[in-house]
């Protein structure tokens, strides 16, 4: 049974909202759109994102959003992770950077819990609204990234070692940030909710931003996320017409991507940069004191340190950040933080695939959100993602979808029991057969 054929349980109509409440909600959505859009503004300190976050969250909490019971495992694991960070920080209260970093982690946890609460109600509408705001932010960031690569607006936009960064300070973060936007546009093209005349130029701009970031992780994440989204949509649809469309659109996008890549690589300077970045490992990755060597050397030390090294103190021992969020979980938060982070990834992975494969009204949006989040879990092996704002947004989205799915299943079960009971009563009052 496809999601479209599933029973829809609707709440009984209530009183129409008071005009003042409707106006306040409208303002709340406006604040929320800004909240999402400003995620990409990491080059400002403090960011507009932080200025909007507090009033947006406070307003929606006042409007009555609540935490669903199905989100409790998510909240508990986040709390345990941050408790591990706080305990590991206790010996170093006078070190400003670890203290600031820990408070930032707690702040990001609060935003993730808020997102899970926000998306657990009116889920389909709110997820779609948030994805559109995210796409607007991604298109802006991609345009800024391409502009920075070609040295437009120099002094305003960032460029690092010949790689586009735009409004981000790190090209790797720019490239990764654009991937969910690309997945959203690609999904719309596949299922027919987005016109090619608009979708293909938007997708081209996002892919250009990802390419010019010259981030190996982002390149791989784009391929994995789009292939997984395509496979999930193809696997879960029962429509052969839609499957044929998926094959046609997929082939078109592939041809356009290969053609565009060939055109870009015909430029000598771009080809040289691509060849340099396309290597599986770089000099700073290899050797005993390279990135991967540091990670391996740290494991025996972390086994002997229940509280880890303390937040942001891995660099004091190895001269570099761990560039691995799983090792970073143990280094920053000790055994408690590390195992909580592993638990969060494991439980979220189970929930994500269940949302994508089990029929429900929320399956379509899960096909966008989960592949976008999964690639960050995979990237966490080679980069630190634990302070990326968009990761916490996607976590909140996924757990909001799960809360909505659980509520929907309860409503369907109650409706089915009611129908069976009514049928049994009807049979009981039926006249006897002659």
Written overview of the protein:
Residues 9-13 and 429-434 have low confidence and may be disordered. Strand 1 (158-160) and strand 2 form a beta hairpin. It contains 15 helices and two strands. A two-stranded antiparallel sheet has the order 1-2. The chain is mainly α. The protein is globular, with a radius of gyration of 24 Å. Helix 1 runs antiparallel to helix 2 (48-62). The chain has one domain. The chain has helices at residues 19-37, 48-62, 72-89, 96-119, 123-149, 171-191, 196-212, 216-236, 240-265, 268-277, 291-303, 314-318, 325-357, 363-379, 389-428, and strands at 158-160, 163-166.
**What's the N-to-C terminus distance?**
40 Å
Using the CA coordinates, give the radius of gyration: 24 Å
Our count of domains comes out at: 1
| Largest sheet, spatial ordering of strands | 1-2
Order of helices and strands: HHHHHEEHHHHHHHHHH
Mean pLDDT: 88
Net shape: globular
Oligomer: single chain
The main pleated sheet reads as:
2 strands, antiparallel
Structural class: mainly alpha
Helix proportion = over 70%
Strand content: under 5%
Number of helices: 15
Tell me the total number of β-strands.
2
List the uncertain runs.
9-13, 429-434
